[in-house]
Amino acid sequence: MKINITFDLAPFLPWLRDYDKDKFTRDLIAGLTVAAVLVPQSMAYALLAGMPPIYGLYASFLPVIVAALFGSSRFLATGPVAMTALLTASALYGLAEPGSERWIALAGVLALMVGFIRLIVGILRLAFVVELISTSVIVGFTSAGALVIALSQVGHLLGFKITQSTHIYEVLVDIFSKVSLTNPYTLIIGVVAYAIIWISRRISPLLPGALLAVFITSLASYFLGLQNFGVSIVGNVPSGLPSFEIPSVDYRTFSQLWVGALVISAFGLMEAVAIAKQLAIKAGDKWDPNQELIGQGLANVVAGFFKGFPVGGSFSRSALNFQLGAKTPIASVITGLSVGLTLLFFAPLFYYLPKATLSAIVLSAVINLIKPQEILKLYRINPVDGIVAGVTFATVFFMDLWVAITLGTLIAFGSFVYKTMYPRIVLLTRNPQSSTFVNAEREKLPECPQILYIRPNMSIYFGNAEYVYEHVLQKVEERKKSLKFVLLDLEAVNYMDAPGSLTLVRLLDRIRAMGVEPAMANIGCTLYPLLEKVDLDKHINIDHIFDSKGRSIVELFKRLDHEYCRKKCPYAVFKECWTVKEQNFKPTERVA
């Protein structure tokens, strides 16, 4: 595989060539509108990641700008997202106390690791790796992750602390054991905030319901003194832009973060590429998935150095950019700058913001992602895919999120590999009606007793080579008495590794040792160089290698025992058979 290393230092320049007032106006409207959604969402997702709310704003400032300038999509809105925030918390549980200085430092290290992984994947142009994550795994994981996120917010909505875990079972048990501690004032605030967001969406998807909920519930908290009734509020939110810091971590903890970093990177890769691709297709834009990953990688690196945590592409905010007709990535730059202004001048205004409101914002974003019916739909289409999705979903009840997505991916890969280990091997014969080669067993048509025409319907590699070897020899043994040739059709074999090619020549030798001559047809041009390296001509008569089905039958028929054809063979499989049959011969066209 050839790897191309590319890095565009200024991918945003083409967007600026014909930039005009009209484009700026559209970008300004989109940028400010998305910012109105991002500000409250980022604070809510910071809590989800175990970070103080202000760090959500930090992660929504420079990372958003960098991702826009170095990505390829004019619509993709980068920043804190629910699933990435949850995976961040999952990766850090047990290593530090949520919200502590060490937790914050580890989140920065995790962002750097995620950033460098995505950056390397983009620079090496390996974006295709995202296709290796099965849709079945994503369906199961998304529903399970959304359920975990929803349950993690119940404590803030009810007014008591719940266990910090991504195991659904543990959280449910803890919630039910403490439900009597519910603070009615906190619950009312949460319900009101959720209702505001829900009603806003019903009126118009462009209405910033989250921001309205923040504004209304903050005013209520201030004038009614809700903190005196046990309602938890955000408290002091420092103003000012984030400073540059290099987060430090010991080697042992660094090594423990790799699994989480890889899972966050993989999920984020798929999420960002899928969003950008979908919106680019709708708008008719050209886009580069590898450049998108470079932008996402740089955004996370910046987040790690400027007091942030792992960020990714948001579908809801990207869709908003699309709806508002953003013309260039400048829309996202405006979004980031708006967050910067909020940090400088408006951050202290969030003092009275109830945490229940932030939980309502998170719930409103993820509640529609809980779709167990999608798992059932997959099962009806293909039971294996349904099982993969179901196992991924069920695993989250008792195991960490990264374990669930890893286990689901391994099962999906395992099921695929298992299928390839036992490829379909077809016995071919000629259909007398259409004069085409067909599956003899499926059509129940006779085969030539002297030619075993067999075709593996899959590439041959180390995992299935031995099965192909044994299957072919079994067929040879069954027909050994009258068999003269074994014709291997490699038309469907697009790839063969070294163990596969060595097994193939071993098969040719074994066929010869059984007193039958091997022949081959339709060897692809990609296979020839490999077979030459294993000295194919020493294991088969070079005259028995053909470039087509028709030619192979014409030549092999000349070498058959025509006396057997005339007196013993009850079939006329090939048109050549009639040249040696007696005039009163009546062929058997079907087999029982």
Description:
The protein has 592 residues and is mainly alpha-helical. It is 57% helix and 6% strand. The strands form two sheets. A six-stranded mixed β-sheet has the order 4-3-5-6-7-8. A two-stranded antiparallel ribbon has the order 1-2. The longest helix has 28 residues, at 21-48. It is elongated and about 110 Å long. The two termini are 49 Å apart.
Q: Distance between the terminal alpha carbons, to the nearest Å?
A: 49 Å
Major β-sheet strand ordering: 4-3-5-6-7-8
Q: How many DSSP H or I helices?
A: 26
> What is the average per-residue confidence, as pLDDT, rounded to a whole number?
88
Question: What profile does the largest beta sheet have?
Answer: 6 strands, mixed
What share of the residues does DSSP label as strand, in percent? 5-15%
Percent of residues in helices comes to 55-70%
Regions with pLDDT < 50 over 5+ consecutive residues? none
Rg for CA atoms: 32 Å
- Overall structural class, as computed from helix and strand content, comes to mainly alpha
Shape category: elongated
Number of strands: 8
What's this model, at a glance?
By secondary structure, the protein is mostly helical. It has helices spanning 13-16, 21-48, 54-58, 62-70, 82-92, 101-123, 135-152, 154-158, 168-178, 184-203, 209-224, 251-256, 258-283, 289-305, 315-323, 330-346, 355-366, 372-381, 383-395, 401-421, 440-443, 465-478, 498-513, 528-533, 549-558, 562-567; strands spanning 77-79, 312-314, 425-430, 437-439, 451-456, 485-489, 517-521, 545-546. It starts with 12 loop residues before the first helix and ends in a 25-residue tail after the last helix.
